Amino acid sequence: MSIPDIRQIPLDSSIVFRSLASTDRIEYYGVLDGLVTYTKASRDGFDIVKYHADVRRTVPDIKDIEDLSFFYVRIMPTGGGTATIRPFANEWIEPGTLNIVQDKAQVKLTVWDVKGNDPREIIRILNAAGYTAKIDQIV
User: Fold this and answer.
1) Minimal CA–CA distance to 74: which of 88, 84, 64?
2) pLDDT exceeding 70 applies to what percent of the chain?
3) For residue 17, which of 8, 4, 7, 36 has the smallest C-alpha distance?
4) Alpha-carbon 11 to chain mean position
5) DSSP labels for 5-58?
6) H or E segment and range at residue 127
7) FRET partner for 131 with CA separation of 20 to 30 A, picked from 1, 27, 82, 120?
8) What are phi and psi of 67, to 5 degrees?
9) Three-state DSSP class for residue 88
10) What integer pLDDT is reported at residue 118 of this predicted model?
11) Domain ranges for the chain
12) Angle CA(48)–CA(53)–CA(58) in degrees, nearest 5?
């Protein structure tokens, strides 16, 4: 079940969500690292003004950037490595996509003989059943 507001999630929870930005269609997996102000989020090297403008193309009536609910998400790269801590706004999250990842176990799944079918349909089926899933590679 999705969570409507980042402020309802305990710090250090593993989360997953998608953005409303038209140029950012990845699914974010990370850890909620803290809630921050606009001023703090704007000083951390990520261009939140540009990102907000991109979201505004999708959601023209979004609040002004200074009025958003900002948080830090610690994004861990697949396969290990150094985490990236990035500011994000609750209002930039695509509705219905913010979830706490309850179980940190990952299952690798291989599907053969797709034969012209859209492989994203597999993800839709898994998501509809309550699983968090993504396509890592199509070969």
Assistant:
1) 84
2) 88
3) 4
4) 16
5) -GGGS-TT-EEEEEB--TT--PEEEEEEEEEE-HHHHTTSSS-HHHHHHHHHHH
6) helix 120-128
7) 82
8) -100, 5
9) strand
10) 80
11) 6-103, 107-139
12) 125
| Per-residue exposure over 96-132, b if at least 16 CB sit within 10 Å of its own CB, e if not | ebbbbeeeeeeeeeeeeeeeeeeeeeebeeeeeeeeb
Residue 24 has pLDDT above 80, yes or no: yes
Model-level pTM? 0.71
- Ranking 12-26, 52-66, 110-124 by mean pLDDT, the lowest is 110-124
Q: Which two tokens stand for residue 32?
A: 């909620």
d(CA 139, CA 130): 26
Specify the residue for token string 């801590």: 85
